[in-house]
Write a structure and sequence with these properties.
Helices cover 75% and strands 0% of the residues. It has 170 residues and is an all-alpha fold. Helix 2 (16-65) packs antiparallel against helix 3 (74-94).
Amino acid sequence: MPAPISPCTLATSADPCAVAVTVNVLGLVSAQLLDIALDVERSVNGVCSGFQGMTDRLKKAVEICSPIEHHASESSVQAIADQLNLDIVQAVVAMQFQDRVNQRIQHLVATIDDLAQELRPNVIDAEQEKVHSLTEFWLERMNDRSTMQAERRLLQAEQPESDLSPVELF
């Protein structure tokens, strides 16, 4: 089995403009992945917050209903509230997929960032005008594939400068 070839070794024989565009697009893809992870986390946190609110309201309902003698006994109301609470807890546990997704995305981002960093020294001789033009071409392609406004906003906000600096995420 032959030894693996470093992307940096491959890049030295490639057109510096192509390598520069690759570095720029890798930065944009990395930023998109991080944005996805944050969006998933925000969504899951919102659902969890909603579940917590429902649980709190159910507990208050049980407290209010307890002294009242209706068709349902206090123990049956409590049993229903306990079951709803259990259902909510199980739903929250099932949503922990977000943590797994976030970890996987973080690993992809780290790999992409490492690759971009390794390729960066090979772009010194790149024609900045050509790099900018080709990067814009890829931005448009990515934008055309975007189905949500949040994706488009990120692409517009993260257009790399011609100095080939890494995309700032924070």
